[in-house]
Amino acid sequence: MKLLSDIFGRCGAYLDALTPKEAYRRGVYWGTVAVAILVLGLANYHIQSIPAGIQAEISKRLEKRPWINDYVMVDGRDIYLTGEIEPGSGIEIELAQIEQVPGVRRVFNILIEYPRPSAHLRLQRRGDELVASGRLSGEILERVMTYIESGFPRLKIIDRISIDDRVGRPLWIEGFGQSLQALRPVSSFELNGWRDQIELTGTTADLHTGTSVGYSIPASLVEQVDVVNLLHPETASNYPEIAIIMDWSGSEVSGTVPSPQHRLELLEAVSEAFAVDNLRSDIKVDSSLEKSTHLTLLMSLLSTLNQVQDLRLESTGKGYIVWGRVDNPVQLGRFLAARNQLGLGSVLHNRIAVSRPERGASVALFSDRRRVIVNGILPTMKSKQQLFGEIIDILPVVEVIDLVSIEPNVAHSEWLSRWPHLLSGLPAGVIGITIDEHNLLLTGTVNSQAQLAEVDTRIGRLFPDSNNINWLTTTD
Predict the structure, then answer these.
(1) Residue 440: closest CA among 420, 462, 412, 424
(2) What does the alpha-carbon distance between residue 139 and residue 433 come to, in Å, rounded to a whole number?
(3) Strands 241-247 and 250-257, how do they pair?
(4) How far, in Å, CA of 58 to CA of 100, rounded?
(5) What pLDDT was estimated at residue 211?
(6) Per-residue confidence at 47, pLDDT binned at 50, 70, 90?
(7) What angle do helix axes 415-424 and 381-394 make, rounded to 10 degrees?
(8) d(Cα 361, Cα 387) in Å, to the nearest integer?
(9) Do 295 and 241 form a contact (C-beta atoms < 8 A)?
(10) Rounded average pLDDT over 262-280
(11) Exposure string (b/e) for 348-362, b if CB count within 10 Å is 16 or more?
């Protein structure tokens, strides 16, 4: 405004010294200049305010998932989405909302999909204590601990979570705070969260408790986050309590039985039925419990469950409940027939499903001098320990960096049994191995064409049904 005042003041003094006709012409001229300056100023102000307005509206639409703002750049009326993001991050709805912001002309999506190792969180509550363990990035860990402290303010919280900024962002994090609020009344539970899965187990007096774990996840992620709720009623008083777990985390049997003889028989039955080497056990004895004949019959039934994957068998009410999955209905049929024959049809409730896993085990190994980096997904801790043991025994390494995740719904692939034969027969120049149930990729160097042909022959014999890709080069 001061600029316009100066302009009009000088124009007035100048016009006073001219003839009326000249003054009129000059007045029109300078008046036009002043109006033009005013219009240009207003237009410039409007243009500069457009990006700020668009950015403010985008931030408002992303207020429930503010981390997406880090990938948004506003340039005038154009939007650029840039950076590295994990595949299947569930931001499709948010991207559509950005495109619909008033004033946006074009949206350029140049996001790069970059897969990362899966995050993992395990929460275990037993009475007044809550133990948190797993592997999360620093940013996610800070949020998770805030949610935990807010959700369970009166519990003793033990933080054993390791920080690893190489792992990805779990899709369930947006609704995690609400999920924990729903679990506050549950005095005994275990919650496991991976990138796109949540598994909840435990006992509760109210089966409706905990159902909002799934409801608290944003609508854009409902189809991408698999929520498995295995909460079940508490065991009736004076009844034996047992839990048998054979899943990705290992093998475990626990509970309370009426006598030392029952404890011994239960341990022997589990060990014989599942042929496990490292069975974790925590079985207590309480002589005041009823000596139920169902427990003895149940032990004789365990051998029919040794083909069940992700098996969980736990006490509930005055009976038992079993979860898991099998690859074909014949396996399930054998178990159900044996259960009914023993008269346990109304005592042992079946939750075993027939479904093939969507993913097979996969591993990518990269060797840098005497250091090895291993990434991938495996079905069980036992398979992981075996694979890493073979790497250390066969390869001349001094350091192994572990980026492998153990996840449910991952199939035990045949290549795992042939892995040591693959490692022991490869030349020292091989620096990269990527393998899954359908593909094998080798990278690195060999000394000659003859050695290259030898590698081709070897992997062809070991993996005749696989898509073998040999990207080895020769140094001769």
Answers:
(1) 462
(2) 31
(3) antiparallel
(4) 10
(5) 56
(6) very low
(7) 10
(8) 12
(9) no
(10) 88
(11) bbeebeeeebeebbb
Backbone angles phi, psi at 36, to 5 degrees: -65, -45
d(CA 447, CA 427): 9
Helices then strands, counting H and E runs in the chain, come out as: 12, 25
The answer to whether 205 touches 233, Cβ cutoff 8 Å, is: yes
Q: Which of 156, 205, 209 is nearest to 184 (CA)?
A: 209
13-17, 239-243, 264-268, 468-472: which has the minimum mean pLDDT?
13-17
Residues 141-184: pLDDT tens digits? 999 999 999 999 999 999 999 998 888 888 888 778 888 888 88
Cα–Cα–Cα angle for 278, 198, 142, nearest 5°?
A: 100
Q: What angle do CA 164, 169, 171 make, to 5 degrees?
A: 145
Whether 170 contacts 119, CB under 8 Å: yes
Chain segment 55-97, per-residue pLDDT in tens: 777 777 676 667 777 778 777 778 887 777 776 666 666 777 7
Residue written as tokens 């807010």?
A: 150
Strands 371-378 and 362-368, bridge-based pairing: antiparallel
- What is the distance between the alpha carbons of residues 240 and 257, in angstroms, rounded to a whole number? 5
Residue 335, judged by CB atoms within 10 A of its CB (0-12, 13-18, 19+), counts as buried
> For residue 232, what pLDDT is reported?
79
CA dihedral 297, 352, 188, 248 (to 10 degrees): 110
What CA–CA distance (Å, rounded) separates 139 from 144? 9
Tell me how far the alpha carbon of residue 214 is from its chain's centroid.
Answer: 15
Question: Model confidence at 210, in pLDDT bands (50, 70, 90)?
Answer: low
Tokens of 134: 């797993």
Report how far residue 441's alpha carbon sits from residue 467's, in angstroms, rounded to the nearest whole number: 8
Instruction: Return mean pLDDT, the chain.
Output: 81
Q: What is the pLDDT of residue 43?
A: 47
DSSP string over 239-256: S-EEEEEEETTEEEEEEE
Q: Which is nearest to 82 in space by CA: 92, 91, 72? A: 72
Q: What is the CA radius of gyration of the chain?
A: 33
pLDDT band of 21, cuts 50, 70, 90: low
Question: Phi, psi at residue 39, to the nearest 5°?
Answer: -65, -45
